[in-house]
């Protein structure tokens, strides 16, 4: 309960693109390359959700293989995986030991896999921001990718400006 309250309070600040709640944490010192065997994504989505399919296609265009499961109990999966409600979106994916919640750009996932930041359990783009991969729109929004750690804290992993080009996954 206390963890959820802390995440709620932190998420309220972190989700505002112009605000910074805390400094971004330093990545692990030993950056590695991302091998093909690390590029397999298992995605669970609400049945019939089209933007989830567009996000999966975005990942495929950047060298990921994506297995899609239509899951009417995807919100139960989020809860059992320890993903706090303020970070929820329409789909939940898993890559390696990490969860990936929502419309996270491929380059952020590659960065996560390359840097392997200590204590991070996953990354999320909460909600469904216009202009994020899979949510293309003529009036895009700025948004943040949030990292969640094993102690329940969260921080801004990456910032994205409205209209950013996500066609380059590196």
How does this model look, in words?
This protein has 170 residues and is an alpha/beta fold. The protein contains 4 helices and 7 strands, in the order αβαβαββαβββ. It has a single domain, classed as Glutaredoxin (3-Layer(aba) Sandwich), CATH 3.40.30. It has helices at residues 2-14, 50-61, 74-80, 106-115; strands at residues 40-45, 65-70, 91-95, 98-102, 120-125, 143-149, 154-160. Strands 2-1-3-4-5-6-7 form a 7-stranded mixed beta sheet, with helices on both faces. Strand 1, helix 2 (50-61) and strand 2 (65-70) form a beta-alpha-beta unit. Mean pLDDT is 84; it is low at 1-30.
Characteristic key phrases:
4 helices; 170 residues; 7 strands; Glutaredoxin; globular; alpha/beta; 7-stranded mixed β-sheet; single chain
Set out the fold topology.
Layout: H1 2-14, E1 40-45, H2 50-61, E2 65-70, H3 74-80, E3 91-95, E4 98-102, H4 106-115, E5 120-125, E6 143-149, E7 154-160
Parallel strand pairs: 1-2, 4-5
Antiparallel strand pairs: 1-3, 3-4, 5-6, 6-7
Strand order of the largest sheet: 2-1-3-4-5-6-7
Flag low-confidence runs.
1-30
Please estimate the helix content: 10-25%
Quaternary organisation of the protein chains: single chain
Quick take:
With 170 residues, the protein is an alpha/beta fold.
């Amino acid at each position: 309960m206390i963890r959820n309250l802390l995440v709620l309070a932190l998420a309220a600040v972190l989700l505002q693109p112009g605000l910074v709640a805390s400094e971004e944490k330093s990545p692990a010192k030993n950056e590695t390359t991302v091998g093909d065997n690390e590029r397999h994504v298992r995605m669970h989505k609400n049945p019939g959700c089209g933007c989830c399919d567009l996000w999966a296609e975005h990942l495929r265009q950047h060298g990921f293989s994506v297995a899609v499961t239509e899951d009417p109990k995807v919100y139960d999966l989020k809860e059992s995986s320890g993903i706090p409600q303020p970070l929820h979106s329409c789909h939940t994916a898993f890559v390696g030991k990490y969860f990936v919640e929502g419309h996270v750009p491929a380059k952020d996932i590659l960065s996560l896999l390359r840097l392997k930041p200590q204590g991070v359990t996953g990354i999320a783009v909460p909600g469904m921001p216009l202009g994020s991969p899979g949510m293309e729109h003529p009036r895009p929004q700025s948004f943040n990718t949030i990292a969640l750690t094993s102690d329940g804290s969260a921080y801004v992993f990456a910032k994205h400006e409205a209209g950013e080009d996500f066609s380059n996954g590196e």
